């Protein structure tokens, strides 16, 4: 669905005066507003192809209607998000849910909407209808060599699809692990997994990266073979320079200090990818910033500081992706909210005065250090994020625009009310 330029202009025109008033205030309050706006304009977050339909739980799935029926329609939906916020300029594909049957066509369609292809995602956590062997007892860790080989071959196939689309990275998340003590020999499971990852690593083109994503538990509840950042780091280090750890915000045990994990991985040059979501209890996949916005800011502060310390490019040297999906919201509105929360946390992180913070730390001035971070966190950065959108030709208030223009109603009219997108 195309968004008409005049609708965007009408919307912005109506909100412009109030926006300008708020922008003037924040621009006069912070001393690097212009620089932050430029950095916000450049920052892009990939949208996963499975987040465009209403997510389900193991108890059920309630489609909201107008969901994309094909990969083409998914690209259209991401193009629509990008037209509204100009910060969703990348697609992260999942194979086999979204196999590009005609890669050149899909690539051109994405390019038309200003989208590129970010990390590719493989899937060895489900059995597919045509599949010969089962992943019931794991994929790369499996005691059966043929099952391990099937998982390796699948990942290599995913790389090949990615090459056709212009992607340059592969994210591997394994559900491998065990549900009961004694089920698995931990060392053998690790060695098998490492061997498989090494074979996949060998198939990476020269300019590609592989991201090893970890998760503490679920679907396995006793052990997970890539269960935490230490294990992921171990695989990434043994694999070589093209291998990195990927942090998913929902994949830790409760109360883990994710900002510290991020800081140390960046220090070691081993953080390559990042998945955004939020959670209250476990891997809840809630809208980013909906539960713990302060934690999101603290993580971003470490991301910015750690990337700057290594001279990394904020835009291109990390795979940024939303990894969330829900039951009760319009998935497109939800993604707009997530992107907004990420941009706000990024803007706040850019605002932290590193010199003053460093001085407070050197003086053991705990109160001053806390004040510096909390003052930044309590600053309203929304006008700067909106200004970045405005300058890029996007809309001042994406969620409001989505509703004013009755975009979901139009999608339902076009696609029907009973459509269900592929995914979980
Ligand atoms: Mn993830």
CATH architecture group name = Alpha-Beta Barrel
* Count of domain modules: 1
Main beta sheet: 6 strands, parallel
pLDDT averaged residue by residue: 96
**Count of discrete alpha- or pi-helical segments spanning 4 or more residues:** 15
Task: Please indicate the percent range of residues in DSSP E strands (runs of 2 or more).
Answer: 5-15%
By secondary-structure content and strand pairing, the structural class works out as alpha/beta
The CATH superfamily is identified as Divalent-metal-dependent TIM barrel enzymes
Question: What percentage of residues falls in helices of 4 or more residues?
Answer: 40-55%
Provide structural commentary:
- With 424 residues, the chain is α/β, with parallel strands linked by helices.
- It has one domain (5-350, 381-415): Alpha-Beta Barrel (TIM Barrel), CATH 3.20.20.150.
- The protein is built from 15 helices and 11 strands.
- The protein has helices spanning 5-29, 33-42, 71-85, 103-112, 145-165, 186-202, 229-239, 258-267, 293-309, 331-351, 354-362, 366-377, 382-391, 398-404, 407-415; strands spanning 46-48, 90-92, 116-117, 120-121, 169-173, 177-178, 209-213, 223-224, 243-248, 271-276, 319-322.
- The strands form 3 sheets. It has a 6-stranded parallel sheet with strand order 4-5-7-9-10-11. It has a 3-stranded parallel sheet with strand order 1-2-3, covered by helices on one side.
- Helix 8 (258-267) links the parallel strand 9 (243-248) and strand 10 (271-276).
- The longest helix is centred in the N-terminal third of the chain and has 25 residues, at 5-29.
- The chain is globular, with a radius of gyration of 22 Å.
- Bound molecules: manganese (II) ion.
């Amino acid at each position: 669905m195309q968004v008409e330029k005049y609708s965007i202009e009408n919307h912005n025109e109506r909100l412009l005066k109030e926006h300008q008033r708020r922008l003037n205030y924040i621009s006069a309050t912070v001393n690097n507003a212009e620089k932050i706006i430029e950095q916000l304009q450049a920052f892009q977050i990939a949208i996963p192809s499975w987040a465009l339909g209403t997510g389900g739980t193991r108890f059920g799935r309630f489609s909201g209607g107008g969901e994309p029926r094909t990969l083409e329609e998914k690209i259209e939906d991401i193009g629509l998000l990008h037209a509204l916020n100009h910060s969703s300029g990348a697609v992260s594909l999942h194979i086999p849910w979204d196999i590009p049957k005609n890669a050149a066509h899909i690539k051109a369609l994405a390019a038309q909407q200003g989208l590129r292809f970010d990390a590719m995602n493989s899937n060895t956590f489900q059995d597919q209808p045509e599949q010969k062997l089962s992943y019931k007892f794991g994929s790369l860790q499996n005691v059966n060599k043929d099952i391990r080989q099937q998982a390796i071959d699948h990942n290599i196939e995913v790389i090949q699809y990615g090459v056709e689309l212009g992607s340059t990275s592969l994210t591997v998340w394994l559900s491998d692990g065990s549900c009961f003590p004694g089920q698995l020999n931990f060392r053998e499971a690790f060695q098998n997994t490492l061997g498989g990852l090494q074979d996949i690593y060998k198939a990476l083109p020269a300019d590609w990266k592989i991201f090893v994503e970890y998760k503490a538990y679920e679907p396995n509840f006793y052990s997970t073979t890539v269960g935490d950042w230490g294990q992921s780091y171990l695989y990434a280090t043994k694999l070589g320079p093209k291998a990195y750890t990927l942090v998913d915000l929902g994949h830790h045990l409760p109360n883990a200090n994710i900002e510290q994990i991020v800081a140390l991985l960046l220090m070691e040059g081993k953080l390559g990818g990042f998945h955004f979501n939020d959670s209250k209890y476990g891997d809840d996949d809630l809208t980013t910033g909906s539960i713990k916005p302060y934690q999101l800011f603290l993580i971003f502060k470490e991301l910015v500081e750690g990337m700057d310390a290594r001279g990394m490019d904020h835009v291109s040297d990390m795979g940024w992706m939303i990894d969330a999906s829900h039951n009760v919201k319009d998935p497109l509105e939800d993604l707009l909210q997530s992107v907004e929360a990420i941009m706000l946390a990024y803007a706040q992180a850019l605002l932290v005065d590193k010199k003053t913070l460093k001085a407070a730390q050197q003086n053991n001035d705990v109160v001053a250090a806390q004040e510096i971070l909390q003052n930044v966190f309590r600053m309203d950065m929304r006008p700067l994020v909106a200004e970045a959108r405005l300058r890029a030709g996007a809309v001042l208030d994406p969620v409001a625009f989505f509703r004013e223009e009755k975009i979901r109603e139009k999608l339902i009219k076009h696609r029907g009310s009973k459509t269900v997108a592929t995914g979980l």
